[in-house]
Design a protein that fits this description.
The complex is a heterotrimer. Chain A is mainly alpha-helical. Helix content of chain A is about 80%, strand content about 0%. The radius of gyration of chain B is 25 Å and the shape is globular. The chains are: A mainly alpha, B alpha+beta, C mainly alpha.
Chain lengths: ~325, ~525, ~325
C-alpha cells in the first residue's frame, strides 16, 4: 500500500514536471511578449534591455529552472499587462470559476442522475427515448450559442435572470462568494446550466448504462428473488452501485469543466480564471497563461491521485492489481 | 426531476427571488464598455477609453467640453506671451482627493513625469519644452519653436499630486518591466468629480462622487459601477434587460433593437475616427504577393485602381447600417474647414480594370491583407467586403483577420511594418490635421524613424516640408491653406484609400440623460439619472 | 467479445452484404425509426458535403460572385425575400443555403480528418502499449495522462498560438484547417489508445494469439490481423461520437478565434458570425446554420448511441 502510494505520488510529480515543460516550451512560441508591453516609439535598444530585464535572453535551462522553482512556491511572477502578482490575480479569480464549476456539477447530477435512472429502468418507454434524444440536443449546439440563447430568453425577454457577472458577492476571508446573496445565486443559474449541460448528458448516459448492467447482475436478481420491493432494489441496491463510477467520472471531468468555463465565462462576462486566461492568450501575457495551465494540470493530477488512492482503500481487488503492476 | 419541471422550477425560483432586477439606487450609474481598464496610472497607456475614464477622476490644465471645445480646467486662463512662451494661470483652492492642495509644483512634476521613461504619453508635451514656476499659481512654458497647438492634447494630460506620488513610490511611470505594481496603478488621487473606490483590473471599477469638487456639478450621480463586458451580445442584453444604464459600443446591427425597446435609446453620432486602407509602398517587393521582383503598389495607377474598385456606399449601407460617412480625406470634415474641396474618386469597376491593365496587371494579382477583427466597428466585415469587391477586378486578396493584439504586433514599426495591405483607423489626438499629416504621411525609414504610423511608407518630401510649415504657422487661414496643399498631394497620389468616418453608437437607458462626445469619451460628470 | 472471432471468418466466406443484412445489428437498426431517420439525415449531409460544388445554387467561396448589396436578404418566404436566395443571405451577400452546404463540407472535412488522425494515432499506440507492456506501456499511458490534463480547447488554443508564432508568414487560410485537425485530433487519441489497450490485454492471453506466436508470426502481423478486428466495434462507436464532438469543437473554437477563415466559412464560423445578428432581427443568419449544425451533430450522435447499444452483447 505504502509503496503504491509513493510510486503514484512520484509519477504525479513527473507528470507535473512534464506539464510544466510543455507549457514552458509552448510559450516560447506564442509570440514575443515585449511587443505587447511597450509603445510603438520604443527603440530596439530599449526592447533589448527589457528582454534582459525579463530574463528572456537567459539560457533555456536557466529560464525553465526559474519557472519550475517559482511554480513550486506558487510564484508565477507578475502579469505583463496588469502589473500585478499572477498568483494573487488567479487567487482572486479562482472562487468565481470554482463556484461556477461546482454549481454546474450539482446541476448536472441533480438532473442527470434521475433521468439516467429512469431511462435505465424503463428502457423502452417513449419518455426515455425522449430524454435520450432531448439530452443530445443540448450537446448538439455549441456552448456559446446556448449561452447567448439563454441570455436572450431569460434576461432580455423575461427579464428574470441577470445576463452578466456574479451579482453581489460577499467576502469570506480570502474567498469571495456569490452563494450568500440572492443576486449572486440568481447570477449563477444561467452560466451553471450552460456549463453543466454537457456533463448532464454524460452523467445521464453513464447512469443509464450502469443501471442496465447492474440490473442484469446476479446480485440484483437475488435481491429480487428474496422478495425485496422493486423500489428497494432499484434505489437501495442498483442505484447505489451505479453511483461510484458516476462520482468518479464527475470528479475526473472537473478539469475539463474548468476549461470549458472559458467559453461560459466569456459569454456571461463571468469574472473567473477562464476569462482571465482568454484575455491573456490574446495579449500574450505569458505568466498568466503558464500559471493557469499549471493550475489545471495540478488539479487534474491531484484528483487522479485521490481517485486512485480511494480505489485502493475501498476495493481490495484493485489493491492487488495495483501492487502487481 | 424531469428537465421541463426543472426549468419551470428554475423560473419559479427566480421569480421567488424577486421579479425584475432590483432597480439600482437612484443615483448609481451602471455602465459597461467592451474593453477593460488595465491600470489607473494616467500615463501608462495612451488609449481613448483608459484616458477618457480617468478624465472623470483626474483633470488636466484644460479639458474638452461636450462639443470638444477647449475649456479652462485646472488652469483658469492662458496667454501666448511671445510665440515661444505660454503663460498658464492656475486655479486656486483646488484640492486633490486626499486633501492636498493643487499648485504649480504639481504641474511641473506632472510635466516631467509624463515625459519620463515608461510613459506612453510622451508626445503630449514637446521634449524640449521647459516648465518654469513663476509663482505658486502661475507656470510658464518655454518652447524652442512656436507651437500653435501646444495645449490641444492637454485635455487628456492629467495633473498628479507631487507629494502623494512621492510618498507612494509612484514617481516613476509604471512600466512594462516593473516587477511590482506601484500604488498609482491600483489607486488614484486626482482633482476630478469622482474618486476611485475599488478597482479590479480587467473586471470592474467603482467610483463615488467627490463632494469637494471645485466645479459646479452638472450631474446627480453618487456612485458609478463600471464593468467590462467584451461580448457584444451580452453587453446589449444587459442594456435591454435594464441591468445597466449605459453600454458602449453598441454593434450597428443592434441599434434598431435598442431603439425599438421601450426603455432604451441608441445614441448615435459621427465619430472623428477615419477608417482607411493602406498599401506598402516602400519595399521593392511585397512581402505577401504573387508579384515578384517589384512592388505593384509603387505604381499610383494600381493604388487608384484599388480605390475605384471599392464601393464605399455599399459598405456604408450594408456593413455599417448607414452609421458611417464616406470620406475623401484622412481626417473628419468636422476637423478641417476646407474639407468640402475634396471629393472621393468614384466607384468604377471598369476604370479600375483599365488602370490595372495600364499598370501591367490585366489579370490582377494576389496580395495578403491584414485586418483587425476586434478594433473598429465591423472591421472584419469591412475587410471581407473589400476582399470580394477587389475580386471583381481580378485582385485575389488573402485576408488575415486577427485580434487587435496580434494585428498591431504584426503591422507596427516594432515588427518592421510586416504588412502589404491593411485596414487601420486614426483619430488625431489633437483634433488637428498636423497630427494626421505628420503621423500618417511623413517619410520614414524601415525602422520607423520619421513618421512612425505611416505603415505603408508613403513618402513625398514636399508633404514633409508642408508639415514643417503647418506646425509653426500661427495664422489660421494660412495654416488651413497649407494643410489643403498637403492633402491635395496625398489625395492625387493616393497615399491611402480613406473609407469612412465610423459612427458612435451608445446604448442609453431612458432613465439617464448624458452628453455624447464625438471622440467617444464618456463624461460621467454630465450624467443625470431619474 | 470472444464469440465474435468465429463469425469474422464467416463474413469473408458468405459475403459481407448478405451477412450484414442478416445480422442482429441490422435487425436492431430496422427496429428503431429514430435511428433510421438519423441514418438518412447523416447520409443527406454526407452527400451534400461531397457534392456541394455541383448541387449548391451559388458558390459562396467565389468572392468575385458576391455582391454586398445582396447582403441581409431575408429568406424567400419572408417579405423582401427573393427566390434566388431560398434561405436568405448573410451580411456579405452569401447565399445561406449554398454556404451551409459548403460549410458542412468544411466542418465534416475537419471532423473526419481529425477523427482519422486521432484514431490512427490512438489505435497504434494502444496496440503497442497493450501488446508489449512494460516500460513502453507505462510511458504511453503516462503521456495519455498528461494529454488528458489539457482539455481540447486548451490544446487548440496552444497549438494555434504555437503555429502562428512559429510560422508568422504563413497565411491563416492555409494553416487553419490543419491547425484544427491537429488540435482536435490530439485531444481525442487517448480514448482510442485506452480502449484498444484494454482489449489487447485481454486478447493477447487467448490461445489463438499464443498459437500465432508459436507458429512464428511477427508481432505486428498478429496485432493487425488478429487483435485489431476484435476491437473494431468499440472503436467504431468512439469514432462516431468523436465525429459529432469534433464538429462541435470546431464551432466552439471558431468562437474563441481559432478557426476557419471567414472567407471560407465552416458551419462553426457561420454561427460565430451569425450570433452578431441574433438581436437585430436578421435571425436567419444564425438560426439556419445553427439548426444545420445541431441536426447534423444530433443525427451522428444518435447513430453513435445506437451503435454502442447494438454492439454491446450484454444489452441485446
Amino acid at each position: 500500500m505504502l509503496a503504491f502510494m509513493i510510486r503514484r505520488i512520484f509519477q504525479s510529480i513527473i507528470v507535473m514536471i512534464v506539464v510544466a515543460l510543455i507549457s514552458f516550451l509552448l510559450f516560447r512560441f506564442v509570440g514575443d511578449p515585449v511587443n505587447q508591453m511597450v509603445g510603438i516609439e520604443t527603440t530596439p535598444e530599449q526592447r533589448e534591455a527589457l528582454r534582459v530585464q525579463l530574463g528572456l535572453n537567459d539560457p533555456v535551462l536557466t529560464q525553465f529552472w526559474r519557472f519550475i522553482w517559482g511554480a513550486a512556491q506558487f510564484d508565477f511572477g507578475i502579469s505583463y499587462q496588469f502589473k500585478q502578482s499572477v498568483a494573487e490575480m488567479i487567487g482572486k479569480r479562482a472562487p468565481a470559476t470554482l463556484e461556477l464549476s461546482l454549481m454546474s456539477a450539482i446541476f448536472a447530477m441533480l438532473v442527470g442522475i434521475p433521468m439516467g435512472v429512469y431511462t435505465g429502468l424503463k428502457r423502452d418507454s417513449w419518455l426515455s427515448k425522449f430524454f435520450l434524444t432531448f439530452s443530445l440536443v443540448g450537446i448538439s449546439l455549441p456552448t456559446f450559442l446556448i449561452g447567448i440563447l439563454l441570455i436572450y430568453v431569460f434576461a432580455v425577454q423575461f427579464q428574470v435572470l441577470p445576463s452578466f457577472g456574479r451579482g453581489e458577492v460577499v467576502q469570506v476571508g480570502f474567498w469571495s462568494t456569490g452563494l450568500l446573496t440572492a443576486s449572486g445565486l440568481k447570477a449563477l443559474i444561467l452560466p451553471s446550466i450552460t456549463l453543466g449541460l454537457f456533463q448532464m448528458t454524460l452523467i445521464m448516459r453513464l447512469v443509464r448504462s450502469e443501471m442496465l448492467e447492474v440490473m442484469r447482475t446476479d446480485y440484483i436478481k437475488f435481491a429480487r428473488a428474496r422478495g425485496l420491493s422493486r423500489k428497494a432494489v432499484n434505489f437501495g441496491h442498483a442505484l447505489k452501485n451505479t453511483l461510484v463510477p458516476v462520482i468518479t467520472i464527475t470528479g475526473l471531468q472537473l478539469g475539463s469543466v474548468i476549461a470549458f468555463a472559458i467559453i461560459t465565462e466569456t459569454v456571461f462576462s463571468w469574472p473567473g480564471m477562464g476569462l482571465l486566461f482568454l484575455q491573456s492568450v490574446q495579449n500574450v501575457d505569458i505568466p498568466i497563461m503558464a500559471a493557469y495551465l499549471m493550475l489545471i494540470g495540478f488539479l487534474f493530477v491531484v484528483i487522479n491521485l485521490i481517485v486512485d488512492l480511494l480505489y485502493v482503500a475501498v476495493d481490495p481487488r484493485i489493491r492487488v492489481t495495483g501492487l502487481a503492476q | 426531476m424531469k428537465l421541463k419541471t426543472f426549468k419551470t422550477a428554475v423560473i419559479a425560483g427566480a421569480l421567488a427571488l424577486g421579479v425584475g432586477l432590483t432597480p439600482a439606487s437612484a443615483a448609481t450609474l451602471k455602465f459597461a464598455f467592451q474593453g477593460s481598464l488595465k491600470s489607473l496610472d494616467p500615463y501608462s497607456l495612451n488609449e481613448t477609453f483608459t484616458l477618457g475614464f480617468l478624465g472623470n477622476v483626474y483633470e488636466g490644465l484644460v479639458r474638452r467640453g461636450p462639443d470638444l471645445a477647449i475649456e479652462p480646467s485646472l488652469a483658469t486662463s492662458w496667454k501666448v506671451m511671445e510665440p515661444t512662451r505660454w503663460r498658464f494661470n492656475l486655479r486656486k483652492g483646488v484640492k486633490f482627493h486626499n486633501g492636498n492642495d493643487f499648485n504649480a509644483d504639481d504641474v511641473i512634476f506632472s510635466a516631467n513625469r509624463v515625459r519620463s521613461e515608461g510613459s506612453d504619453l510622451t508626445t503630449r508635451i514637446p521634449k524640449d519644452a521647459k516648465f518654469v514656476k513663476v509663482d505658486d499659481y502661475t507656470v510658464d512654458v518655454v518652447l524652442t519653436s512656436p507651437n500653435p497647438i501646444l495645449n490641444y492634447e492637454w485635455g487628456s494630460w492629467y495633473i498628479i499630486d507631487k507629494e502623494w506620488a512621492e510618498a507612494n513610490n509612484s514617481v516613476k511611470v509604471t512600466s512594462a518591466s516593473d516587477d511590482s505594481a506601484t500604488k498609482i496603478s491600483l489607486a488614484s488621487n486626482g482633482t476630478g468629480p469622482f474618486k476611485v473606490v475599488s478597482h479590479e483590473a480587467g473586471v470592474a471599477s467603482k467610483l463615488e462622487v467627490n463632494k469637494d469638487w471645485w466645479d459646479t456639478p452638472k450631474h446627480n450621480i453618487d456612485k458609478v459601477e463600471f464593468t467590462t463586458i467584451a461580448s457584444d451580445a451580452t453587453r446589449v442584453a444587459a442594456l435591454l434587460s435594464g441591468e445597466l444604464d449605459m453600454v458602449y459600443p453598441v454593434p450597428v446591427q443592434d441599434l434598431k433593437r435598442v431603439n425599438d425597446n421601450a426603455t432604451t435609446t441608441a445614441l448615435t453620432g459621427p465619430e472623428l475616427r477615419t477608417i482607411f486602407l493602406g498599401m506598402d509602398q516602400i519595399r521593392d517587393e511585397l512581402l505577401e504577393s504573387s508579384v515578384k521582383g517589384k512592388n505593384p503598389f509603387k505604381d499610383v495607377r494600381v493604388r487608384k485602381a484599388f480605390y475605384q474598385a471599392i464601393n464605399v456606399e455599399a459598405i456604408k449601407k450594408k456593413v455599417m447600417r448607414n452609421l458611417a460617412t464616406p470620406s475623401a480625406l484622412m481626417i473628419s470634415p468636422f476637423l478641417f474647414s476646407k474639407a468640402d474641396q475634396f471629393q472621393r474618386y468614384p466607384y468604377d469597376v471598369a476604370a479600375s480594370k483599365t488602370l490595372l491593365a495600364e499598370a501591367g496587371y490585366p489579370d490582377g494579382f494576389e496580395v495578403g491583407m491584414d485586418c483587425p477583427n476586434d478594433r473598429y466597428v465591423n472591421d472584419e466585415a469591412i475587410c471581407q467586403a473589400v476582399t470580394s469587391m477587389l475580386a471583381k477586378v481580378g485582385i485575389k486578396v488573402n485576408l488575415n483577420a486577427q485580434p487587435k493584439s496580434k494585428y498591431f504586433a504584426k503591422v507596427l514599426a516594432s515588427n518592421g511594418f510586416e504588412t502589404s495591405f491593411f485596414l487601420l483607423g486614426w483619430t488625431p489626438g489633437s483634433l488637428d490635421s498636423w497630427n494626421v499629416i505628420s503621423n500618417l504621411h511623413g517619410c520614414r525609414d524601415e525602422k520607423g524613424n520619421g513618421s512612425p504610423f505611416n505603415l505603408g511608407g508613403y513618402c513625398n518630401p514636399k508633404v514633409d516640408e508642408l508639415a514643417k510649415q503647418i506646425l509653426v504657422e500661427n495664422d489660421a487661414a494660412k495654416r488651413d491653406d497649407l494643410i489643403a496643399q498637403a492633402y491635395k498631394i496625398t489625395t492625387d497620389e493616393v497615399a491611402y484609400i480613406p473609407l469612412h468616418q465610423q459612427g458612435l453608437a451608445w446604448g442609453v437607458s431612458n432613465k439617464i440623460s448624458l452628453k455624447q462626445r464625438a471622440d467617444n469619451v464618456f463624461m460621467m460628470y454630465y450624467v443625470n439619472k431619474k | 467479445m470472444s464469440d465474435q472471432t468465429a463469425p469474422q471468418i464467416d463474413i469473408v466466406e458468405k459475403g459481407m452484404l448478405a451477412r450484414a443484412l442478416d445480422s442482429d445489428i441490422f435487425f436492431s437498426f430496422r427496429q428503431s425509426k429514430i435511428v433510421m431517420a438519423a441514418a438518412v439525415v447523416t447520409l443527406i449531409y454526407f452527400s451534400m458535403a461531397l457534392f456541394a460544388p455541383w448541387i449548391a445554387p451559388h458558390n459562396p467561396f467565389d468572392l468575385a460572385s458576391l455582391d454586398l448589396m445582396d447582403g441581409l436578404t431575408p429568406p424567400a418566404w419572408e417579405e423582401d425575400g427573393v427566390p434566388q436566395f431560398l434561405l436568405g443571405t448573410d451580411d456579405q451577400g452569401r447565399d445561406l443555403l449554398s454556404t451551409i452546404m459548403y460549410g458542412s463540407r468544411i466542418s465534416l472535412a475537419v471532423g473526419f480528418a481529425s477523427v482519422a488522425f486521432a484514431a490512427i494515432l490512438g489505435i497504434t499506440l494502444g496496440l503497442i502499449s497493450g501488446y508489449f507492456g512494460g516500460f513502453i506501456d507505462t510511458v504511453i499511458m503516462r503521456i495519455a495522462d498528461i494529454q488528458l490534463t489539457f482539455p481540447s480547447i486548451l490544446i487548440a488554443l496552444l497549438i494555434d498560438g504555437t503555429v502562428s508564432g512559429l510560422f508568422p508568414e504563413s497565411r491563416r487560410e492555409d494553416s487553419a484547417f490543419w491547425v484544427l485537425v491537429l488540435a482536435i485530433g490530439l485531444s481525442f487519441w487517448v480514448q482510442y489508445a485506452r480502449t484498444v489497450r484494454s482489449s489487447v490485454l485481454v486478447e493477447k492471453e487467448r490461445e489463438y494469439v499464443q498459437a500465432a506466436k508459436l507458429i512464428g508470426l511477427k508481432p505486428l502481423i498478429i496485432m493487425f490481423r488478429h487483435v485489431l478486428p476484435n476491437v473494431l466495434g468499440p472503436v467504431l462507436v468512439i469514432i462516431t461520437i468523436n465525429l459529432a464532438l469534433a464538429v462541435i469543437t470546431e464551432a466552439t473554437l471558431s468562437f474563441l478565434g481559432v478557426g476557419i477563415p471567414v472567407t471560407q466559412p465552416s458551419l462553426g464560423t457561420m454561427i460565430r458570425i451569425g450570433q452578431d445578428f441574433l438581436f437585430s432581427g436578421e435571425w436567419w443568419i444564425t438560426i439556419f446554420p445553427g439548426a444545420a449544425l445541431a441536426i447534423l451533430v444530433l443525427a451522428v450522435n444518435l447513430l453513435g448511441d445506437w451503435l454502442r447499444d447494438a454492439l454491446n452483447p450484454k444489452l441485446r
